[in-house]
Amino acid sequence: MLEQYLRFKEENPDALLFFRMGDFYELFFEDAEIVARSVQIALTSRNPKDDNPIPMCGVPHHSVEPYLAKLLEQGFKIAICDQIEDPKQAKGLVQRAVTRVLTPGTVVEDSSLKAKQHNYLAALYWDSSKGCGGVAWVDFSTGEWSGLHSKKEPDLWQWAAKIAPSELLLAQGRTVPSQYGDLSAQVTSVAPGAYFDFNRGSERVCQSQGVSSLDTVDLENKPELVRCCGALLLYLEQTQKGDFNHLGEFKPLNPGKHLLLDEVTEKNLEIFRRLDGRSGKGTLWRVLDRTMTPMGGRLLETRLRQPWRDSRPVIETQDVVSALFERDALRADVRRELDTVYDMERLSTRVFLGRAVPKDFIALRTSLTSLPRLRVLLADSDAADVAALGKVLRQWDDMEDLSSLLHKALVDSPPPVITDGGLFRTGYDGELDELIELTEHGEARLQDLLEQEKKACGIPKIKLGFNKVFGYYLEISKSYQGDIPEHFIRRQTLVNSERYITPELKELEEKLLSASEKRKSLEYALFQKLREVLADARSRFLFMAGVVAALDYWQSLAEAARINDWSRPELHDGMEIDIESGRHPVVEDATGAANYIPNNVQIDANRRILLITGPNMAGKSTVLRQVAIMVIMAQIGAFVPARNARIGMVDRVFSRVGASDNLAQGQSTFMVEMMETARILRQATSRSLVILDEIGRGTSTFDGLALAWAVVEELARRARGGIRTLFATHYHELTSLEGHIEGLRNLNIAVKEWKGDIVFLRKLVPGAADRSYGIEVARLAGVPRPVVERARELLAQLEEKSQDGSGVGAHQVCQTLLPGMAPESAPADSVQEHPVLGVIADLDVDAMTPLQALTMLGKLKKLL
């Protein structure tokens, strides 16, 4: 057995080998030590009395999933080695084979997946000689896959970072660029010759899609993308060890149809994760997510990553959201029914792959039960007149045939394991009914036979018994002196009784003893037939899963809008963005609507660049982000947190917000800031929206001011009239650009002074801020009082020196105030000597007694 184990381990050296032995999966040697430590189970040993015992651990096969999930989460690969023949029929060693290799990007079990998030396996390839590349990704748990072909390598890495794959296949020797270092942990290096071969990739893609030409799936002139698709398919072949024809139609991504959000913008706007890296509360996704099904949650994730650029699908979505927004009772009923729908996509995948357990079939049955009720709810409402909803209803499939089959076939609470029996209802199969009768009512059949014999032969005290040697028998006491029926066959003589069998009793015994095994075998066969029926209907399951996802997505947006008092934005193809009483949805969700001060923002031909000044903590960044977030919300079809909003469609949103570094890759805060700024200036178009916060703060004052100034000029110069920009800054000098740069307008966040304190009004008003209030903010932050008072004193002197009309700059002002900073070139007589310095210079320290020194110290103190 160990030789067999080692052979499979040699074939899978980079995976933990789970080796099936009876009711357990066992691990040995180093694998056992790793697993025992990683999932906290007992480490034992085989042959413990030997000088070199073999480390061993194991887990029950029926409860292995939680352990597998923990190991996958830690990044391990796992080879599952199963018994492929019945141990009862095996002669010698049971035949085994590795039936599947589990990796983070290829799992389909719920225990290893997040319900409302995709789980992508990706592959990226760049051909530097041709200047072309591709990136492809597949969610194996749903069968959805797509990809992107590009002549810009940074675009490929941006998309790879955006989709956040659980695994990323790269050719050996390829490394992740430093700015995308977070992807390094997900990289699986593969041989480029085998995985990224174009000819083999073409064959695999055509075979997978059932087509004869790459042109059919829009891959004719995208060889690098074909290589990536081929790599994905080969990896799946090697890990799944069987058919995986559940993959859907490959649909190359067309970036021109979507508002593009790079990974930096997603991070800065906290769409999926907060700036501290945590997900959940504090993100836009969390505020918007009122979905009731996993499919709806994943559709919301997709829409947020890829908002529409064309207004047509946005308006269609808005129409349905409006209809559900206005009908609270209908929306509540729809939400109640959706709550009983399980993950039809992933359930049908497990059924198709033969990995579904009985509870998966019950979940599908429950889901199908809700479909007719959902259709009736929608069809009976006046919301059915809305175009998108009407189209859905016309294509609706209740799937009543499959629902009826599952209800007829399966019991309500089946056992967890298929081979245990007890899966099917009586009445589903005649042969099975007889076996169920025997296994569940066998004792009653025996008692009936006993009563028949008593009546037939007139012997009232016949007893029924059983032992392992003779099986069932009839026992008659020796006190009985009458005749024994001829069909009674003597089997055993005891002191006080005789034991007999009859042909009928023997026949019934054989049926009873074999009924349990026959029942399990028959139920297993019936279950496989049922699985095949459902697997053949996978396309129907996927279609209705898509319908349910869309319905869930629409009601989620309507529910979020109703709860948060949002309004429907008006979309147009112009450049104007006009927001009345806008709020930041995530901040408002955290602080409460009553504590949030709304603001108006207007961008048009005369106000293309809004320069926003004001102190720290006043809310400049919040205003910037809320405008960008409202644009994204509008272009996924959602309502927005504003009284009214008119939004000109945007092709890209760029953000440069906050201070961050990437020290592991040798990038300082200022370097990261400049890299992000460079990306914006190179990629922004006339239809983009740019938000910039505190450009140039990471370097010296004059360097930073010069950079910020130049960036503003470039944004104003680009795209024949300037790019729509919100630019927050502490450099008040930039406010003088209003009137000199066309389309630039000054705004500030209002602050009020009250009895020596400052009050942040959080209100965006026209004009430039007159002060930064940095010292007041420092006091509010808890900086010690002496430091605050000294800072105020220095600020007054700096302001006095800088405003005395002498034309002296900030650097020269500091030189006159800070000790030791006078210029070396200054004439000696230009520095006025303090009287104490002259006294000290005349002292003969070596000739002074301690008392004289103490007396002199007192005099110096008085002079000071």
Automatic annotation (TrEMBL):
Record bears the keyword DNA damage: yes
Superkingdom classification of source: Bacteria
GO terms (BP aspect): mismatch repair
Protein keywords: ATP-binding, DNA damage, DNA repair, DNA-binding, Nucleotide-binding
Gene3D superfamilies to which the protein is assigned, alphabetical: 1.10.1420.10, DNA repair protein MutS, domain I, MutS, connector domain, P-loop containing nucleotide triphosphate hydrolases
Listed GO MF terms: ATP binding; ATP-dependent DNA damage sensor activity; damaged DNA binding; mismatched DNA binding
Family: Belongs to the DNA mismatch repair MutS family.
Name this protein carries in UniProt: DNA mismatch repair protein MutS
Source species of the chain: Pseudodesulfovibrio senegalensis
Name of the gene this protein is made from: mutS
